[in-house]
Design a protein that fits this description.
Strand order of the largest sheet: 1-7-6-5-4-3-2
Mean pLDDT: 94
CATH superfamily: Aldolase class I
Number of domains: 1
Strand content: 15-25%
Shape: globular
Length: 126
């Protein structure tokens, strides 16, 4: 299970971006975070074309399929969406990892029981 933002585990920093200029200002070791794919698909194309590691917020199964096709490293969603997306991601061997946004360590085991790829603590996103 992937744990991003837990104080015991080394993990990449996530940086929320809204424009190409924001992406260009990000640090190479950061994962840029795009807002919902419906609003940021052109930025996703830019990241894919330039080999920039990125994550994207997904709200539907369709968004998840597109995020994988666009080369997102991670997709971030709520638990219900993750439970719907994860079996499809496994069936089609997605390279994109499914993460659930959490606020407390207490949520980790619940997400793990659902078979989700991982979690990201809200504090890991700047």
């Amino acid at each position: 299970m992937i744990l991003i933002g837990h104080p015991w585990i080394k993990s990449p920093a996530f940086c929320r971006v809204f424009t190409r200029e924001d992406i260009q200002k990000s640090q190479p070791e950061q994962v840029v975070l795009l807002e919902p794919l419906v609003d940021s698909h052109t930025l996703a194309n830019y990241c894919q074309d330039n080999g920039i590691s990125y994550a994207v917020v997904v709200n539907t199964l369709d968004d998840a399929i597109y995020a994988n096709a666009l080369g997102a490293e991670y997709m971030i969603c709520d638990e219900d969406t993750a439970l719907m997306v994860q079996p499809v991601a496994e069936q089609y061997l997605f390279d994109t990892k499914v993460l659930v946004l959490i606020h407390s360590e207490k949520e980790i085991s619940k997400i793990a029981r659902g078979g989700i790829d991982g979690v990201i603590f809200a504090g890991a996103i700047s």
